[in-house]
Amino acid sequence: MEEANNQSKKWEQEEISNEMNSWELTEEQSFDWRGRPSNPNKHGGTRAALFVLGLQAFEIMGIAAVGNNLITYVINEMHFPLSKAANIVTNFVGTIFIFGLLGGYLSDAFLGSFWTILIFGFVELSGFILLSVQAHLPQLKPPKCNPLIDQSSCEEAKGFKATFFFMALYLVALGSGCVKPNMIAHGADQFSQSHPKQSKRLSSYFNAAYFAFSMGELIALTLLVWVQTHSGMDVGFGVSAAAMTIGLISLLSGTMFFRNKRPRRSLFTPIAQVVVAAISKRKLVAPSDPIMLHGGNHASNDVVPSSTLPHTPRLRFLDKACIKVQETNTKESPWTLCTVSQVEQVKTLISLVPIFASTIVFNTILAQLQTFSVQQGSSMNTRLSNSFHIPPASLQAIPYIMLIFLVPLYDSLFVPFARKFTGQDSGITPLTRIGFGLFLSTFSMVSAALLEKKRRDSSVLDGRILSIFWITPQFLIFGISEMFTAVGLIEFFYKQSAKGMESFLIALTYCSYSFGFYFSSVLVSIVNKITSTSVNSKGWLGDNDLNKDRLDLFYWLLAVLSLLNFLSYLFWSRWNIKSSRSNNSTVVGGDNI
């Protein structure tokens, strides 16, 4: 009998160990480019991360030059009407971030972040080249015309011309989508969260990544947009291809310095096991003492081993997956019995959903700044001097001019100062950072609505054209809010306890952009349908003339949605904090706000 009990305990320990290994990749499990264990003195750290930051700056430079001026190209060269062109842009940007999920999955499950970046970096490069070819050859575009003078005389791109355009465009989307989350994850992987100094550097890395992003955006929105405007879109797309090439060279140059994590293979299997086990035992009652759960012997300890997670009271239904129903020497299947740590991983992932959802409206606002606000600027006085005009697409450079100074000051001055009071490596917690950004975004739309009302009245009633500088506040406010929300969201998701899923979780943050841009397209269609009060009325956004549209009312609608979204975020962030506390008040992946 004693031998049977010993055998049963042995099987249980082996099962717990196997399930832990399926979820955990410890800090020591990193390798160099040859597959050998990495050396902390030679691999990783700030030096290795700099090569990734180089790629990030040049990649965003290339994709931003395409995306931010795409609506002008689609209208003037491909001759799509304004509302359809706006949807093409938002769908393109949204698809980029949907493909981020594919890139995150392939990285964490099969390829690793380095190889995923390299393979899909060349896919993105091929898309840039095809766009340049399409913009250069007249036979791949509809005949030239001026859609601003007579839209009806312009032939919309169809057939092979449209197919070639969308094929090139979505090769760029596929490549960029798979590259983006892995750039952030691969750079962050160069730092060890268990080492105090490197943990602080990891927080600084996220700010540095946003600085690289801002620099790439600034160059794209000034120099590259100027090239597109004065030398043609074919040259502009070609420069994007050149920028991507330089970025890939930067990545390859750091190959010998990177520390790489091996893919897990079974990315979703442990999650499915918890769900199936919990459902199969749905009629059972979970014990009140978590120590009675399978693998719950650490639930009430003050010090928890790094390979386990303490039990938390949130989502108690999932605890049923840990109920042991067989006390004999018969081994239960991993599809019917899971460990507490395995269940806590799934709880963590589920708790991220409302935080993720709270950023969708935020990114819907971003979509307006890349579409309608660009057209808004086009209808204003863009003259800076007698010989120089500001390209409307360069309006989005306004916040990045400020951010290249603000981000270093934030990291070097504010973070150390706040750290003295909060004890947080990042100064303020990621959830606080997200919330502050969401709050600010509301005022971006308030500013946009007030400006559009003034611009429209001046044009229609007084015949005056306002200076393009009036549009500056809405871009500045949103730029600051994005610095807080975007960086806070990535840092919060990356630092969650689901080890081995870093790339996929970062891809989820990018997926928020996708849903935001898709929601923008849906919202435009719904608003037009609801506000079409007569046969001749096309709704608030149905005309190609902003003087006839009511873009100001649409901006007010977004301001209201943004405020409601912020209030919702406050509720869910507080729920996340309270529910992530274990029975002994240990915070697991928690935060304060």
Secondary-structure content class: mainly alpha
- Beta content comes to under 5%
CATH topology of the largest domain: Growth Hormone, Chain: A
Number of helices: 17
**Quick one: how many beta strands?**
0
Low-confidence stretches: 1-5, 7-28, 298-307, 583-590
Transmembrane segments: 48-76, 88-106, 112-133, 205-227, 239-258, 349-369, 389-410, 431-451, 471-493, 505-527, 553-572
Pfam families: PTR2
Family: Belongs to the major facilitator superfamily. Proton-dependent oligopeptide transporter (POT/PTR) (TC 2.A.17) family.
Subcellular location: Membrane
Describe this structure in words.
It is a single chain. With 593 residues, the chain is mainly α. It folds into three domains: 30-264, Growth Hormone, Chain: A (Up-down Bundle), CATH 1.20.1250; 267-294 and 312-338, no CATH class; 341-580, Up-down Bundle (Growth Hormone, Chain: A). It is 64% helix and 0% strand. The protein contains 17 helices and no strands. The radius of gyration is 26 Å and the shape is globular. The termini are far apart. Keywords: Membrane, Transmembrane, Transmembrane helix. One of its GO terms (biological process) is oligopeptide transport. Pfam families: PTR2.
